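Possible race condition, two jobs.
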Amino acid sequence: MTSLRHAPPAAETDTGGGPGLNRPQNGGSRPTDRSLLHPRRRLYHYAFALPSICLVLVFFVVPFVANAFFAFVQWTGYSSTLTWTGLSNFELLDQVGLLKHAITVTAVYAVTAMAVQNAVGLALATALQRTSRVNTVFRSLFFVPVLISPLAAGYIWAAVLDEHGPVNAFLSAVLPGDFHYAWLGHDTSALLLVASIDAWKLSGLITLVYIAGLNRIPEQVLQAATLDGAGAWRRFWSVKLPLLAPAVTFNVTVSLVGAFSALDVVFSTTAGGPGDATTLLNVAVYTQYGQSFFGTASALSFVVTLMVIVTAVPLMSWLRRREVQM
Protein backbone atom coordinates (compact mmCIF):
# COMPACT_ATOMS: atom_id res chain seq x y z
CA MET A 1 0.00 0.00 0.00
CA THR A 2 1.34 3.39 -0.99
CA SER A 3 1.57 5.82 1.86
CA LEU A 4 -0.30 9.07 1.37
CA ARG A 5 2.60 10.80 3.01
CA HIS A 6 4.79 10.09 -0.01
CA ALA A 7 2.20 10.90 -2.66
CA PRO A 8 3.34 13.82 -4.86
CA PRO A 9 1.19 16.96 -5.01
CA ALA A 10 -1.39 17.08 -7.76
CA ALA A 11 0.17 20.16 -9.34
CA GLU A 12 3.51 18.30 -9.72
CA THR A 13 2.07 15.06 -11.15
CA ASP A 14 0.02 16.83 -13.81
CA THR A 15 2.42 17.65 -16.65
CA GLY A 16 0.00 17.78 -19.51
CA GLY A 17 -1.50 21.16 -18.87
CA GLY A 18 -4.45 19.59 -17.07
CA PRO A 19 -6.48 20.98 -14.22
CA GLY A 20 -3.57 20.67 -11.80
CA LEU A 21 -1.59 23.42 -13.53
CA ASN A 22 -4.56 25.61 -14.32
CA ARG A 23 -6.03 25.50 -10.82
CA PRO A 24 -5.82 28.99 -9.23
CA GLN A 25 -3.33 29.17 -6.38
CA ASN A 26 -4.75 32.36 -4.80
CA GLY A 27 -8.04 31.22 -3.44
CA GLY A 28 -10.05 30.96 -6.65
CA SER A 29 -9.35 34.30 -8.41
CA ARG A 30 -9.28 34.35 -12.22
CA PRO A 31 -5.84 34.14 -13.84
CA THR A 32 -4.54 37.16 -15.70
CA ASP A 33 -5.52 37.22 -19.37
CA ARG A 34 -2.13 37.58 -21.00
CA SER A 35 -3.74 38.01 -24.41
CA LEU A 36 -4.51 41.59 -23.38
CA LEU A 37 -0.74 42.21 -23.24
CA HIS A 38 -0.11 40.82 -26.70
CA PRO A 39 1.97 43.24 -28.82
CA ARG A 40 -0.61 43.25 -31.62
CA ARG A 41 -3.39 44.17 -29.17
CA ARG A 42 -1.29 46.98 -27.73
CA LEU A 43 -0.69 48.19 -31.27
CA TYR A 44 -4.46 48.39 -31.79
CA HIS A 45 -4.77 50.53 -28.65
CA TYR A 46 -2.09 52.93 -29.88
CA ALA A 47 -3.71 53.09 -33.33
CA PHE A 48 -7.04 54.15 -31.85
CA ALA A 49 -5.35 56.77 -29.64
CA LEU A 50 -3.19 58.14 -32.47
CA PRO A 51 -5.75 60.63 -33.89
CA SER A 52 -6.30 62.20 -30.46
CA ILE A 53 -2.55 62.32 -29.82
CA CYS A 54 -2.01 64.04 -33.17
CA LEU A 55 -4.71 66.63 -32.44
CA VAL A 56 -3.19 67.43 -29.05
CA LEU A 57 0.28 67.71 -30.53
CA VAL A 58 -0.74 69.86 -33.51
CA PHE A 59 -3.16 72.22 -31.79
CA PHE A 60 -1.77 72.40 -28.24
CA VAL A 61 1.80 71.21 -27.78
CA VAL A 62 3.36 72.64 -30.94
CA PRO A 63 1.69 76.09 -30.61
CA PHE A 64 2.70 76.28 -26.94
CA VAL A 65 6.33 75.44 -27.71
CA ALA A 66 6.40 77.87 -30.65
CA ASN A 67 4.83 80.64 -28.56
CA ALA A 68 7.32 80.01 -25.75
CA PHE A 69 10.14 80.39 -28.27
CA PHE A 70 8.81 83.57 -29.91
CA ALA A 71 8.29 85.16 -26.49
CA PHE A 72 12.08 85.52 -26.24
CA VAL A 73 12.61 86.68 -29.83
CA GLN A 74 12.54 90.15 -31.33
CA TRP A 75 9.97 89.71 -34.08
CA THR A 76 7.99 92.48 -35.75
CA GLY A 77 6.18 92.95 -39.01
CA TYR A 78 8.66 95.67 -39.94
CA SER A 79 11.69 93.37 -40.18
CA SER A 80 12.28 89.99 -41.82
CA THR A 81 14.89 88.88 -39.26
CA LEU A 82 14.31 87.12 -35.97
CA THR A 83 16.77 87.89 -33.17
CA TRP A 84 17.04 86.08 -29.86
CA THR A 85 16.81 88.76 -27.18
CA GLY A 86 16.06 86.81 -23.99
CA LEU A 87 13.84 88.71 -21.58
CA SER A 88 13.90 91.98 -23.51
CA ASN A 89 10.25 91.62 -24.60
CA PHE A 90 9.13 91.30 -21.00
CA GLU A 91 11.39 94.17 -19.92
CA LEU A 92 9.95 96.39 -22.65
CA LEU A 93 6.39 95.56 -21.64
CA ASP A 94 7.25 96.29 -18.03
CA GLN A 95 8.90 99.61 -18.87
CA VAL A 96 5.79 100.90 -20.67
CA GLY A 97 3.62 99.70 -17.77
CA LEU A 98 1.55 97.31 -19.85
CA LEU A 99 2.61 94.00 -18.32
CA LYS A 100 1.86 94.74 -14.67
CA HIS A 101 -1.36 96.58 -15.48
CA ALA A 102 -2.67 93.81 -17.73
CA ILE A 103 -1.88 91.13 -15.14
CA THR A 104 -3.67 93.11 -12.41
CA VAL A 105 -6.75 93.78 -14.55
CA THR A 106 -6.88 90.15 -15.66
CA ALA A 107 -6.66 88.90 -12.06
CA VAL A 108 -9.45 91.23 -10.87
CA TYR A 109 -11.59 90.32 -13.88
CA ALA A 110 -11.08 86.57 -13.40
CA VAL A 111 -11.82 86.58 -9.67
CA THR A 112 -14.94 88.75 -10.17
CA ALA A 113 -16.30 86.59 -13.00
CA MET A 114 -15.61 83.39 -11.07
CA ALA A 115 -17.25 84.68 -7.89
CA VAL A 116 -20.36 85.97 -9.68
CA GLN A 117 -20.75 82.81 -11.77
CA ASN A 118 -20.56 80.47 -8.80
CA ALA A 119 -22.68 82.62 -6.47
CA VAL A 120 -25.45 83.04 -9.05
CA GLY A 121 -25.18 79.43 -10.23
CA LEU A 122 -25.37 78.01 -6.70
CA ALA A 123 -28.34 80.23 -5.80
CA LEU A 124 -30.23 79.23 -8.95
CA ALA A 125 -29.38 75.55 -8.45
CA THR A 126 -30.73 75.65 -4.90
CA ALA A 127 -33.96 77.27 -6.10
CA LEU A 128 -34.40 74.98 -9.13
CA GLN A 129 -33.19 71.68 -7.67
CA ARG A 130 -36.62 70.04 -7.58
CA THR A 131 -37.67 68.56 -10.91
CA SER A 132 -40.97 70.07 -12.04
CA ARG A 133 -42.44 71.61 -15.15
CA VAL A 134 -41.93 75.15 -13.87
CA ASN A 135 -38.34 74.49 -12.83
CA THR A 136 -37.63 72.82 -16.17
CA VAL A 137 -38.83 75.94 -18.00
CA PHE A 138 -36.66 78.21 -15.84
CA ARG A 139 -33.65 75.92 -16.25
CA SER A 140 -34.01 76.22 -20.02
CA LEU A 141 -34.37 80.00 -19.83
CA PHE A 142 -31.28 80.41 -17.69
CA PHE A 143 -29.31 78.16 -20.05
CA VAL A 144 -30.14 80.27 -23.13
CA PRO A 145 -27.23 82.76 -22.59
CA VAL A 146 -24.78 79.86 -22.85
CA LEU A 147 -25.97 79.32 -26.44
CA ILE A 148 -25.58 82.98 -27.44
CA SER A 149 -22.42 84.05 -29.20
CA PRO A 150 -20.11 85.95 -26.81
CA LEU A 151 -19.74 88.76 -29.33
CA ALA A 152 -23.52 89.04 -29.73
CA ALA A 153 -23.99 89.01 -25.95
CA GLY A 154 -21.40 91.76 -25.58
CA TYR A 155 -22.99 93.98 -28.22
CA ILE A 156 -26.44 93.50 -26.67
CA TRP A 157 -25.24 94.45 -23.20
CA ALA A 158 -23.29 97.41 -24.58
CA ALA A 159 -26.57 98.75 -26.02
CA VAL A 160 -28.48 98.01 -22.80
CA LEU A 161 -25.90 99.82 -20.65
CA ASP A 162 -25.50 102.75 -23.04
CA GLU A 163 -25.85 106.24 -21.65
CA HIS A 164 -29.23 106.49 -23.40
CA GLY A 165 -30.05 102.81 -23.08
CA PRO A 166 -32.85 100.89 -21.33
CA VAL A 167 -31.11 100.75 -17.91
CA ASN A 168 -30.87 104.53 -17.56
CA ALA A 169 -34.38 104.94 -19.01
CA PHE A 170 -35.77 102.55 -16.38
CA LEU A 171 -33.93 104.31 -13.55
CA SER A 172 -35.20 107.67 -14.78
CA ALA A 173 -38.77 106.32 -14.76
CA VAL A 174 -38.72 104.91 -11.22
CA LEU A 175 -36.39 107.41 -9.52
CA PRO A 176 -36.46 111.19 -9.45
CA GLY A 177 -34.20 112.92 -11.93
CA ASP A 178 -32.71 111.88 -15.27
CA PHE A 179 -30.05 109.19 -15.32
CA HIS A 180 -27.44 109.34 -18.05
CA TYR A 181 -24.70 107.38 -16.34
CA ALA A 182 -22.06 105.89 -18.66
CA TRP A 183 -21.92 102.43 -17.10
CA LEU A 184 -19.11 101.32 -19.40
CA GLY A 185 -17.41 104.71 -19.41
CA HIS A 186 -15.87 104.64 -15.92
CA ASP A 187 -12.90 102.55 -14.87
CA THR A 188 -14.27 100.57 -11.92
CA SER A 189 -17.84 100.11 -13.12
CA ALA A 190 -16.69 99.08 -16.60
CA LEU A 191 -14.37 96.33 -15.32
CA LEU A 192 -16.90 94.92 -12.84
CA LEU A 193 -19.79 95.08 -15.32
CA VAL A 194 -17.88 93.40 -18.13
CA ALA A 195 -16.80 90.63 -15.73
CA SER A 196 -20.42 90.25 -14.63
CA ILE A 197 -21.57 90.02 -18.25
CA ASP A 198 -19.07 87.22 -18.80
CA ALA A 199 -20.39 85.54 -15.64
CA TRP A 200 -24.00 85.92 -16.81
CA LYS A 201 -23.04 84.32 -20.10
CA LEU A 202 -21.93 81.04 -18.45
CA SER A 203 -24.04 80.95 -15.27
CA GLY A 204 -26.53 78.54 -16.88
CA LEU A 205 -23.85 75.87 -17.32
CA ILE A 206 -22.59 76.38 -13.77
CA THR A 207 -26.18 76.05 -12.52
CA LEU A 208 -26.68 72.69 -14.22
CA VAL A 209 -23.49 71.31 -12.68
CA TYR A 210 -24.60 72.41 -9.21
CA ILE A 211 -28.06 70.91 -9.75
CA ALA A 212 -26.46 67.59 -10.66
CA GLY A 213 -24.32 67.79 -7.53
CA LEU A 214 -27.30 68.57 -5.30
CA ASN A 215 -29.28 65.66 -6.73
CA ARG A 216 -26.42 63.27 -5.87
CA ILE A 217 -26.70 64.03 -2.16
CA PRO A 218 -28.43 61.07 -0.42
CA GLU A 219 -31.86 61.98 0.89
CA GLN A 220 -31.18 59.94 4.04
CA VAL A 221 -28.39 62.34 5.03
CA LEU A 222 -30.69 65.36 4.76
CA GLN A 223 -33.43 63.55 6.67
CA ALA A 224 -31.00 62.66 9.45
CA ALA A 225 -29.90 66.31 9.69
CA THR A 226 -33.54 67.39 9.89
CA LEU A 227 -34.23 64.90 12.69
CA ASP A 228 -31.22 66.30 14.55
CA GLY A 229 -32.87 69.72 14.49
CA ALA A 230 -30.94 71.34 11.63
CA GLY A 231 -32.85 74.07 9.84
CA ALA A 232 -32.73 74.89 6.13
CA TRP A 233 -29.64 77.12 6.43
CA ARG A 234 -27.80 74.66 8.68
CA ARG A 235 -28.55 71.78 6.29
CA PHE A 236 -27.23 73.82 3.38
CA TRP A 237 -24.07 75.05 5.14
CA SER A 238 -23.14 71.87 7.05
CA VAL A 239 -24.47 69.11 4.79
CA LYS A 240 -25.11 70.21 1.22
CA LEU A 241 -22.14 72.52 0.70
CA PRO A 242 -19.47 70.03 1.90
CA LEU A 243 -21.00 67.30 -0.27
CA LEU A 244 -21.00 69.70 -3.23
CA ALA A 245 -17.20 69.90 -3.13
CA PRO A 246 -16.64 67.99 -6.43
CA ALA A 247 -19.03 70.34 -8.25
CA VAL A 248 -17.36 73.34 -6.61
CA THR A 249 -13.94 72.10 -7.75
CA PHE A 250 -15.10 71.76 -11.35
CA ASN A 251 -17.03 75.05 -11.51
CA VAL A 252 -14.43 77.20 -9.78
CA THR A 253 -11.58 75.84 -11.90
CA VAL A 254 -13.46 76.06 -15.22
CA SER A 255 -14.84 79.56 -14.56
CA LEU A 256 -11.47 80.90 -13.41
CA VAL A 257 -9.52 79.46 -16.34
CA GLY A 258 -12.20 80.66 -18.77
CA ALA A 259 -12.02 84.19 -17.34
CA PHE A 260 -8.23 84.25 -17.72
CA SER A 261 -8.68 83.63 -21.45
CA ALA A 262 -11.52 86.11 -21.97
CA LEU A 263 -11.43 88.33 -25.04
CA ASP A 264 -14.63 88.43 -27.10
CA VAL A 265 -16.98 89.81 -24.41
CA VAL A 266 -14.47 92.54 -23.49
CA PHE A 267 -13.76 93.35 -27.12
CA SER A 268 -17.46 93.74 -28.00
CA THR A 269 -18.32 95.90 -24.96
CA THR A 270 -15.39 98.19 -24.21
CA ALA A 271 -12.55 97.08 -26.54
CA GLY A 272 -10.24 97.45 -23.55
CA GLY A 273 -11.47 100.90 -22.52
CA PRO A 274 -12.21 103.33 -21.13
CA GLY A 275 -8.54 104.11 -21.49
CA ASP A 276 -6.96 100.80 -20.50
CA ALA A 277 -9.33 99.98 -17.61
CA THR A 278 -10.43 96.67 -19.16
CA THR A 279 -7.25 95.84 -21.04
CA LEU A 280 -6.87 92.18 -20.16
CA LEU A 281 -3.81 90.20 -21.18
CA ASN A 282 -5.62 88.73 -24.19
CA VAL A 283 -6.80 92.19 -25.23
CA ALA A 284 -3.20 93.37 -25.03
CA VAL A 285 -2.12 90.34 -27.09
CA TYR A 286 -4.69 91.24 -29.76
CA THR A 287 -3.52 94.87 -29.78
CA GLN A 288 0.16 93.94 -30.05
CA TYR A 289 -0.50 91.54 -32.92
CA GLY A 290 -2.57 94.20 -34.66
CA GLN A 291 0.39 96.57 -34.44
CA SER A 292 2.71 93.85 -35.85
CA PHE A 293 4.69 93.47 -32.61
CA PHE A 294 4.63 89.69 -32.69
CA GLY A 295 7.41 89.13 -30.15
CA THR A 296 5.77 91.16 -27.38
CA ALA A 297 2.40 89.62 -28.26
CA SER A 298 3.89 86.16 -27.82
CA ALA A 299 5.39 87.25 -24.50
CA LEU A 300 1.98 88.39 -23.24
CA SER A 301 0.39 85.17 -24.45
CA PHE A 302 3.07 83.19 -22.62
CA VAL A 303 2.22 85.11 -19.43
CA VAL A 304 -1.45 84.10 -19.84
CA THR A 305 -0.44 80.45 -20.01
CA LEU A 306 1.77 80.77 -16.94
CA MET A 307 -1.03 82.48 -15.00
CA VAL A 308 -3.43 79.66 -15.84
CA ILE A 309 -0.95 76.97 -14.80
CA VAL A 310 0.26 78.70 -11.63
CA THR A 311 -3.31 79.44 -10.52
CA ALA A 312 -5.32 76.43 -11.66
CA VAL A 313 -3.01 73.58 -10.59
CA PRO A 314 -2.60 74.57 -6.89
CA LEU A 315 -6.25 75.65 -6.69
CA MET A 316 -7.51 72.35 -8.07
CA SER A 317 -5.20 70.39 -5.78
CA TRP A 318 -6.43 72.33 -2.73
CA LEU A 319 -10.09 71.94 -3.68
CA ARG A 320 -9.70 68.22 -4.35
CA ARG A 321 -8.31 67.68 -0.86
CA ARG A 322 -11.44 69.30 0.58
CA GLU A 323 -13.83 66.96 -1.23
CA VAL A 324 -16.02 64.70 0.90
CA GLN A 325 -16.64 61.16 -0.27
CA MET A 326 -20.28 60.06 -0.20
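Job #2 (started ~2 s after job #1):
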Amino acid sequence: MSSDSHPLRRSTDRTPRSGTRTVTLVLTVRPGHARPGAALDRLLDQVPSSVREVVLIGGPTGQGAAREGMDVRRLGDWDFTRGDIPHAALLAATGDLVVLMNADGSMSPHEIPHYLHYLESGYDFVKGSRFIAGGDYADYPLSRRLGHRALLRVARRLYGQHLTDLWYGFCAFRRPFVDLLDLREDGVELGAELVTHALHYGLRVAEVPSLELPRRPAGRHGPPHPRTVRDGARILGTLLDERPHNALSRLAHGPFRGSRDSSV
Protein backbone atom coordinates (compact mmCIF):
# COMPACT_ATOMS: atom_id res chain seq x y z
CA MET A 1 0.00 0.00 0.00
CA SER A 2 1.18 3.50 -0.75
CA SER A 3 0.97 6.44 1.64
CA ASP A 4 1.84 9.13 -0.91
CA SER A 5 -1.59 10.67 -0.50
CA HIS A 6 -2.70 11.25 3.07
CA PRO A 7 -6.11 12.99 3.29
CA LEU A 8 -6.58 12.35 7.01
CA ARG A 9 -5.87 14.65 9.95
CA ARG A 10 -2.56 14.56 11.78
CA SER A 11 -1.61 15.62 15.31
CA THR A 12 -0.38 18.99 14.07
CA ASP A 13 -3.69 19.91 12.44
CA ARG A 14 -6.10 22.29 14.11
CA THR A 15 -8.97 20.75 16.07
CA PRO A 16 -12.00 20.43 13.76
CA ARG A 17 -15.21 22.22 14.54
CA SER A 18 -17.85 20.04 16.17
CA GLY A 19 -21.43 19.69 15.00
CA THR A 20 -20.58 19.78 11.28
CA ARG A 21 -19.96 16.09 10.56
CA THR A 22 -22.37 13.43 9.35
CA VAL A 23 -22.13 9.97 10.94
CA THR A 24 -22.66 6.48 9.47
CA LEU A 25 -23.02 3.39 11.68
CA VAL A 26 -21.94 0.13 10.02
CA LEU A 27 -23.65 -2.64 11.96
CA THR A 28 -22.93 -6.37 11.61
CA VAL A 29 -25.82 -8.77 12.28
CA ARG A 30 -24.49 -12.30 12.59
CA PRO A 31 -26.83 -15.26 11.99
CA GLY A 32 -28.01 -17.47 14.82
CA HIS A 33 -29.10 -14.93 17.45
CA ALA A 34 -32.43 -15.36 19.16
CA ARG A 35 -35.18 -13.10 17.74
CA PRO A 36 -32.72 -10.93 15.80
CA GLY A 37 -35.40 -8.62 14.39
CA ALA A 38 -36.77 -7.50 17.75
CA ALA A 39 -33.29 -7.21 19.26
CA LEU A 40 -32.07 -5.09 16.36
CA ASP A 41 -35.06 -2.77 16.59
CA ARG A 42 -34.28 -2.20 20.28
CA LEU A 43 -30.64 -1.55 19.45
CA LEU A 44 -31.52 0.99 16.74
CA ASP A 45 -33.74 2.80 19.21
CA GLN A 46 -30.63 3.37 21.35
CA VAL A 47 -28.52 4.83 18.51
CA PRO A 48 -27.84 8.53 19.21
CA SER A 49 -29.52 11.12 17.02
CA SER A 50 -26.15 12.21 15.61
CA VAL A 51 -26.15 9.00 13.52
CA ARG A 52 -28.12 9.76 10.36
CA GLU A 53 -27.27 6.63 8.37
CA VAL A 54 -27.06 2.91 9.29
CA VAL A 55 -25.61 0.25 6.98
CA LEU A 56 -26.70 -3.26 8.04
CA ILE A 57 -24.64 -6.33 7.17
CA GLY A 58 -26.58 -9.59 7.38
CA GLY A 59 -29.88 -10.25 9.10
CA PRO A 60 -33.29 -11.20 7.65
CA THR A 61 -34.81 -9.09 4.90
CA GLY A 62 -36.84 -6.23 6.30
CA GLN A 63 -34.99 -6.33 9.61
CA GLY A 64 -34.34 -3.00 11.31
CA ALA A 65 -36.99 -0.30 11.53
CA ALA A 66 -35.74 3.13 10.54
CA ARG A 67 -36.19 5.89 13.10
CA GLU A 68 -37.36 9.28 11.89
CA GLY A 69 -34.37 11.12 10.46
CA MET A 70 -32.32 7.90 10.11
CA ASP A 71 -31.67 6.13 6.81
CA VAL A 72 -31.29 2.35 7.29
CA ARG A 73 -29.87 0.36 4.38
CA ARG A 74 -29.30 -3.39 4.31
CA LEU A 75 -26.63 -5.06 2.19
CA GLY A 76 -27.02 -8.57 0.84
CA ASP A 77 -26.24 -11.78 2.72
CA TRP A 78 -22.64 -12.16 3.87
CA ASP A 79 -20.48 -15.17 4.65
CA PHE A 80 -18.89 -14.19 7.96
CA THR A 81 -16.17 -16.85 7.61
CA ARG A 82 -14.62 -14.50 5.02
CA GLY A 83 -14.30 -11.62 7.47
CA ASP A 84 -16.53 -9.58 9.75
CA ILE A 85 -17.40 -6.90 7.19
CA PRO A 86 -17.48 -6.86 3.38
CA HIS A 87 -15.65 -3.99 1.76
CA ALA A 88 -18.94 -3.01 0.13
CA ALA A 89 -20.20 -1.97 3.58
CA LEU A 90 -17.31 0.42 4.11
CA LEU A 91 -17.69 1.84 0.62
CA ALA A 92 -21.44 2.27 1.15
CA ALA A 93 -20.91 4.55 4.15
CA THR A 94 -21.48 8.18 3.10
CA GLY A 95 -20.97 9.93 6.46
CA ASP A 96 -17.89 11.98 7.29
CA LEU A 97 -17.36 9.76 10.34
CA VAL A 98 -17.87 5.98 10.35
CA VAL A 99 -18.60 3.85 13.43
CA LEU A 100 -18.31 0.05 13.37
CA MET A 101 -19.98 -2.22 15.90
CA ASN A 102 -21.61 -5.64 16.28
CA ALA A 103 -25.33 -6.13 16.79
CA ASP A 104 -24.93 -9.20 19.02
CA GLY A 105 -25.68 -7.29 22.21
CA SER A 106 -22.04 -7.06 23.33
CA MET A 107 -21.61 -3.41 22.29
CA SER A 108 -23.79 -0.50 23.40
CA PRO A 109 -24.78 2.37 21.07
CA HIS A 110 -24.77 4.61 24.15
CA GLU A 111 -20.95 4.65 23.89
CA ILE A 112 -20.94 6.08 20.35
CA PRO A 113 -20.81 9.79 21.44
CA HIS A 114 -17.59 9.03 23.35
CA TYR A 115 -15.94 7.76 20.16
CA LEU A 116 -17.18 10.73 18.14
CA HIS A 117 -15.86 13.14 20.77
CA TYR A 118 -12.31 11.92 20.22
CA LEU A 119 -12.66 12.11 16.43
CA GLU A 120 -13.92 15.68 16.72
CA SER A 121 -10.97 16.43 19.00
CA GLY A 122 -8.46 15.62 16.27
CA TYR A 123 -7.85 11.87 16.46
CA ASP A 124 -7.98 9.86 13.23
CA PHE A 125 -8.95 6.43 14.55
CA VAL A 126 -10.71 5.66 17.83
CA LYS A 127 -11.08 2.15 19.19
CA GLY A 128 -12.67 0.68 22.28
CA SER A 129 -10.63 -1.09 24.93
CA ARG A 130 -11.90 -3.49 27.57
CA PHE A 131 -8.59 -3.38 29.42
CA ILE A 132 -8.18 0.26 30.44
CA ALA A 133 -9.82 2.08 33.37
CA GLY A 134 -13.57 2.19 32.81
CA GLY A 135 -13.60 -0.79 30.44
CA ASP A 136 -14.53 -4.39 31.21
CA TYR A 137 -15.67 -7.63 29.62
CA ALA A 138 -18.38 -10.12 30.52
CA ASP A 139 -17.20 -13.22 28.68
CA TYR A 140 -13.68 -13.68 27.33
CA PRO A 141 -12.42 -17.28 27.14
CA LEU A 142 -8.92 -18.06 28.36
CA SER A 143 -7.81 -19.26 24.92
CA ARG A 144 -8.64 -15.91 23.36
CA ARG A 145 -7.04 -14.00 26.23
CA LEU A 146 -3.76 -15.88 25.75
CA GLY A 147 -3.84 -15.42 21.98
CA HIS A 148 -4.69 -11.75 22.33
CA ARG A 149 -1.83 -11.18 24.77
CA ALA A 150 0.66 -12.77 22.37
CA LEU A 151 -0.58 -10.68 19.42
CA LEU A 152 -0.39 -7.51 21.52
CA ARG A 153 3.28 -8.15 22.25
CA VAL A 154 4.00 -8.61 18.55
CA ALA A 155 2.07 -5.46 17.62
CA ARG A 156 3.86 -3.38 20.26
CA ARG A 157 7.27 -4.47 18.98
CA LEU A 158 6.42 -4.05 15.30
CA TYR A 159 4.71 -0.67 15.55
CA GLY A 160 6.06 0.85 18.77
CA GLN A 161 2.51 1.47 20.00
CA HIS A 162 1.31 0.58 23.48
CA LEU A 163 -2.21 -0.56 22.64
CA THR A 164 -4.18 -2.53 25.21
CA ASP A 165 -6.93 -4.16 23.14
CA LEU A 166 -6.18 -5.28 19.58
CA TRP A 167 -9.07 -7.68 19.00
CA TYR A 168 -12.10 -5.61 20.06
CA GLY A 169 -14.21 -4.51 17.10
CA PHE A 170 -15.93 -1.34 18.36
CA CYS A 171 -14.18 1.51 16.53
CA ALA A 172 -14.70 4.77 14.66
CA PHE A 173 -12.71 6.67 12.06
CA ARG A 174 -12.88 9.34 9.39
CA ARG A 175 -14.41 8.33 6.06
CA PRO A 176 -11.23 9.11 3.99
CA PHE A 177 -9.56 6.22 5.86
CA VAL A 178 -11.63 3.86 3.66
CA ASP A 179 -10.01 5.32 0.55
CA LEU A 180 -6.56 4.48 1.96
CA LEU A 181 -7.36 0.81 2.50
CA ASP A 182 -6.00 -1.68 0.01
CA LEU A 183 -9.21 -3.61 -0.63
CA ARG A 184 -7.57 -6.78 -1.90
CA GLU A 185 -9.63 -9.25 0.09
CA ASP A 186 -13.39 -9.75 0.20
CA GLY A 187 -13.66 -8.83 3.87
CA VAL A 188 -11.79 -7.42 6.82
CA GLU A 189 -11.97 -8.18 10.52
CA LEU A 190 -13.55 -5.69 12.88
CA GLY A 191 -10.86 -4.24 15.10
CA ALA A 192 -7.46 -5.78 14.57
CA GLU A 193 -7.04 -5.52 10.80
CA LEU A 194 -8.37 -1.96 10.65
CA VAL A 195 -6.17 -0.94 13.59
CA THR A 196 -3.18 -2.43 11.79
CA HIS A 197 -3.93 -0.34 8.70
CA ALA A 198 -4.26 2.77 10.89
CA LEU A 199 -0.86 2.06 12.49
CA HIS A 200 0.64 1.44 9.06
CA TYR A 201 -0.27 4.97 7.98
CA GLY A 202 0.83 6.54 11.26
CA LEU A 203 -2.61 7.85 12.19
CA ARG A 204 -3.43 9.26 15.62
CA VAL A 205 -5.06 6.32 17.41
CA ALA A 206 -7.02 6.77 20.64
CA GLU A 207 -8.31 4.02 22.91
CA VAL A 208 -11.46 4.71 24.91
CA PRO A 209 -12.90 2.50 27.68
CA SER A 210 -15.67 0.19 26.55
CA LEU A 211 -17.82 -2.31 28.43
CA GLU A 212 -18.31 -5.55 26.52
CA LEU A 213 -21.73 -6.84 27.54
CA PRO A 214 -22.87 -10.50 27.47
CA ARG A 215 -23.67 -11.60 23.95
CA ARG A 216 -27.18 -12.71 23.12
CA PRO A 217 -27.42 -16.50 22.97
CA ALA A 218 -26.49 -17.88 19.56
CA GLY A 219 -28.75 -20.34 17.84
CA ARG A 220 -27.86 -23.52 16.09
CA HIS A 221 -26.45 -21.69 13.07
CA GLY A 222 -23.44 -20.06 14.66
CA PRO A 223 -21.11 -20.06 17.68
CA PRO A 224 -21.06 -17.06 20.05
CA HIS A 225 -17.31 -16.52 19.60
CA PRO A 226 -15.23 -16.35 16.40
CA ARG A 227 -12.67 -19.08 15.77
CA THR A 228 -9.64 -18.24 17.88
CA VAL A 229 -6.94 -19.96 15.80
CA ARG A 230 -8.29 -18.74 12.46
CA ASP A 231 -8.68 -15.18 13.67
CA GLY A 232 -5.28 -15.15 15.35
CA ALA A 233 -3.48 -16.43 12.26
CA ARG A 234 -5.20 -13.89 10.05
CA ILE A 235 -4.41 -10.99 12.39
CA LEU A 236 -0.78 -12.07 12.77
CA GLY A 237 -0.41 -12.20 8.99
CA THR A 238 -1.82 -8.68 8.68
CA LEU A 239 0.49 -7.37 11.42
CA LEU A 240 3.50 -8.72 9.53
CA ASP A 241 2.31 -7.60 6.09
CA GLU A 242 1.69 -4.01 7.19
CA ARG A 243 4.77 -3.63 9.40
CA PRO A 244 7.02 -0.56 9.05
CA HIS A 245 10.36 -1.00 7.27
CA ASN A 246 12.32 -0.90 10.53
CA ALA A 247 9.96 -3.20 12.43
CA LEU A 248 11.91 -6.44 12.11
CA SER A 249 15.06 -4.91 13.59
CA ARG A 250 13.00 -3.60 16.52
CA LEU A 251 11.45 -7.03 16.94
CA ALA A 252 14.86 -8.72 17.05
CA HIS A 253 16.33 -6.55 19.81
CA GLY A 254 15.43 -6.99 23.43
CA PRO A 255 12.56 -8.75 25.22
CA PHE A 256 8.96 -7.88 24.58
CA ARG A 257 7.83 -4.88 26.53
CA GLY A 258 4.70 -5.31 28.52
CA SER A 259 5.28 -9.03 28.99
CA ARG A 260 4.12 -8.62 32.57
CA ASP A 261 1.29 -6.26 31.72
CA SER A 262 -1.66 -7.45 33.81
CA SER A 263 -4.16 -5.38 31.86
CA VAL A 264 -4.50 -7.93 29.05
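The helical segments are 36-45, 87-92, 112-120, 142-159, 176-180, 192-200, 228-241, 247-252.
Logs attached separately.
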